[in-house]
């Protein structure tokens, strides 16, 4: 038997088999595109990351996000990153329009799109995380509950194990994973700061609130121009223009709700450097080398949660503090 003919026959047979397999794969891809949308998971430095393909097909629902505005932003970012980890789209959560310490039942819910631009967020965060509306749900009964733990017994490892478990394909049959539990801003972190920054960059305030922010800035600059004119009264200088008025915003965490919280943290951690007094903050600000000799200090505090009304007193010479009450913007949402 001619061996060359035998080798040609074998080669031809293999080629035909490969061609048939390729055609079958192409047909399967066209008819069943979702069968190839496998979620890839990579574990880098012990942290869970996930692909965001098919993010619109499944959803994550979280409880109302509470406490102060900054805490709500952090909780929202954590909710987004949790959804991304589970390869799901986050259902637009409710934020809180009022601030009550402990009295959670008195919190007034407000929809996300009343504070931030929904479409803008999805546009800026496209391919990273995604928000969805409840109207996007197709089967509101296809829900599984995920009970997130809290307290010191709920460790970083247990939280990560839970995320890994709910990332398995077994849970893909459920359209929605609903997280149950309180204080979502206390969830343990599994994501780098850069991921948080990406979410924050996608948060754009609605026009109404942006206008309030512009008005606050305008009032701060006007206050600075008045201070400048008083300072240079009787001299050849006429003060500085509004656009040249230097100012900085200082988030002073000295309200009673934070002081209660941070003191408990100090006791549990056996440290004494978490809480900062009004005097300590004044000293740190005074030592900032980047501040000019004459600067307006906008003190961002919740006046009604202060233990005293001395925040405008005792600042370094050349620093001119002002708060919401003095600016006349107490009713503003910023």
Estimate the mean pLDDT confidence. 80
**Low-confidence regions:** 1-10, 32-56
> Proportion of β residues?
5-15%
Share in helix: 25-40%
Structural class: alpha/beta
Order of helices and strands: HEEEHEEEHEEHEHHEHHEEH
* Total individual domains: 2
Based on CA atoms alone, the radius of gyration comes out at: 28 Å
Cα distance, first to last residue?
Answer: 90 Å
The geometry reads as: elongated
| Number of β-strand runs | 12
Strand order of the largest sheet: 7-4-3-9-8
Largest sheet: 5 strands, parallel
Oligomer: single chain
How many helical stretches?
9
Could you characterize the architecture of this molecule?
With 334 residues, the protein is of the alpha/beta class. 37% of the residues lie in helices and 14% in strands. The protein folds into 2 domains: 41-201, no CATH class; 207-327, no CATH class. It has helices spanning 3-31, 69-85, 118-124, 156-166, 193-201, 207-231, 256-269, 278-286, 324-327, and strands at 41-44, 47-50, 59-61, 89-91, 94-96, 109-111, 131-132, 143-147, 176-180, 247-251, 295-300, 319-323. A hairpin with a 2-residue loop joins strand 1 and strand 2. The model is unreliable at 1-10 and 32-56 (pLDDT under 50).
